[in-house]
Structures are given as structure tokens and as C-alpha cells.
Design a protein that fits this description.
277 residues; Endonuclease I-creI
Length: 277
């Protein structure tokens, strides 16, 4: 006499078959099988084999997904003036987090520069946004591996820039003063000076040393700025570094002396020209 369906289900379960396997052998639906085996658990070995198989499947799925979604970038092993300028900008007015590389500035010329420099190592477009209240533009890249790489490069650059080529020092300083610098020119108060802000006092000491390396005297005014003054030093700054074209003062500020968006390089020229011969 053939075993009943119930007896068949129980016998298969005792041989450590899963509910899916019993469904396939008997050709019966899950609900019919389950009512006969619900009190008969699988063995510990079978449960452990399922756990391992499930974990392997998840890892394979994650690896496959990562391979398809990860956007590659091109690392650089040797510093160039362009890579120094890019990483320096990201270090000063940039923001490198766990999965995001961002750069913010009011100057569209500087946003364009950073995006152009980034294209050398990362071919995918950024996402731009505008803070309407402040007028600050932001360009952002979303890539975990890229963010980690550039964070490490930022730390490396700060450690190595003192021993770099003169042109590398210029590009580092250009990024700093474009991002953090201002032109303080008040002829009635006899003020003609370039100022640069930075919360990290160690960075200010690096900036001062780099300026000295290329023949520009400066001093640090606590708590957080470096100052360049005197006709010779301003002229040397203009010749060796200068503010970049398109980098302007914010004429909308309530304490703005000029009340218009003048380029900082033009104000620097005015300051130098205002010295009496």
C-alpha cells in the first residue's frame, strides 16, 4: 500500500528535505505540504548550510552590483601644477566627506576651473547647485572611492608642498588666496594689504613659509589670518601669484567699500598704483 501524502511529507522531512524540495517531489502546493511538516524542523547542519549559502549569495550580489555601479577614476602618482591646484582648492573651499567631493564658491570662474581640473582624473559630470540666499555655487561628485583618494591626497599635499617645485608652490598659493584671500584697499586709511583666512594655524604657517620661499614677506595676525603688505611684497605677489581672473569681491555686503563686484586683481593693481613714486 502506497504511503499517504501526509506520510510522504513526514518521511521526506525526516530525511532533511526542505519545504521547497518536498513541493517539487510531491508536486503539491506549499500550504498543503506545510501543514504536515510544520512541527518538524530541519537539522542544525541543514540550517547552517542554508545560512552559508545565503551569505555567499549576498556577497556575490553586492560584488556584482558594485562592479556595475562604481564609476572609475584615474589616480595620479606624480604631482603636477594642475593636480596641486585641484587638490589645494578642494582643501580650502572644498569639502571631502565619506562619499562626496564638493567645492563651493561665488566665483563661477573657480567652479569652472575645479570641474575642468577634475575631468583629468574623473570623467563623470558633477552636480551643480546654487544657494540663492548667499549666491554661493557648489559643484559635487558622489563617489566613495574618489572621496577617500582625494582626502588622502589632500593630507599628502600639505605634508609635501614645502619640498615641492616652485611652480607647485605658486599653484598651492594661488588656490589659497583665490579661495581664502581678500584685497583690503582703503586709500583714505592708507591700507593696502592682502589678507588670507584659515582656521588651522598650522596651514597659515605653511602659507607664510611658501610665500617666503618665492620672495614675499608676510606675517600672521592671530587668530586666523595671514597678511601681505608693502609695495614690494604686493608687487611680488602680483608677479608670482596674483588673484585669478573672474575672482571678485562681494559688492553686496553691507560693509562693502566699493558697492560693486570688482575683480580682486584689479583692486590689487589699484593699490600698487596708488603708492607715490
Amino acid at each position: 500500500m502506497a504511503p499517504s501524502f501526509k506520510e510522504q511529507c513526514i518521511a521526506l522531512r525526516k530525511r532533511d528535505h526542505s519545504i521547497v524540495e518536498i513541493m517539487r517531489i510531491t508536486g503539491r502546493p506549499k500550504t498543503s505540504v506545510y501543514q504536515h511538516i510544520r512541527t518538524l524542523p530541519l537539522s542544525g547542519n541543514r540550517i547552517e548550510s542554508y545560512r552559508k549559502a545565503s551569505g555567499q549569495h549576498i556577497r556575490q550580489f553586492a560584488a556584482a552590483r558594485k562592479g556595475k555601479s562604481q564609476k572609475q577614476f584615474t589616480p595620479f602618482t606624480k604631482w603636477t601644477p594642475e593636480s596641486v591646484l585641484l587638490v589645494a582648492h578642494l582643501s580650502f573651499d572644498g569639502n571631502i566627506r565619506h562619499r562626496t567631493v564638493g567645492y563651493s564658491n561665488r566665483s563661477e570662474a573657480l567652479i569652472d576651473r575645479v570641474e575642468h581640473l577634475m575631468e583629468r582624473i574623473y570623467k563623470y559630470p558633477s552636480k551643480r547647485s546654487l544657494n540663492v540666499a548667499t549666491g554661493v555655487l557648489r559643484t559635487s561628485y558622489y563617489n566613495v572611492a574618489l572621496a577617500l583618494y582625494l582626502k588622502n591626497k589632500s593630507e599628502e599635499l600639505l605634508q609635501q608642498i614645502r619640498n615641492s617645485d616652485r611652480e607647485h608652490k605658486r599653484e598651492f598659493l594661488r588656490a589659497f588666496f583665490d579661495d581664502e584671500g581678500c584685497m583690503d584697499f582703503k586709500i583714505k586709511k592708507n591700507k593696502r594689504r592682502i589678507r588670507g583666512y584659515q582656521k588651522n594655524i598650522e596651514v597659515l604657517h605653511v602659507i607664510r613659509a611658501l610665500l617666503k620661499d618665492i620672495g614675499i614677506d608676510s606675517h600672521i595676525e592671530l587668530p586666523n589670518e595671514i597678511v601681505i603688505s608693502g609695495k614690494n611684497n604686493l608687487s611680488a605677489f602680483q608677479r608670482e601669484i596674483n588673484f585669478s581672473k573672474g575672482v571678485c569681491i562681494n559688492g553686496n555686503r553691507s560693509n562693502s567699500v566699493w558697492k560693486e563686484h570688482l575683480e580682486k586683481r584689479d583692486l590689487l593693481q589699484r593699490a600698487i598704483s596708488s603708492y607715490k613714486v
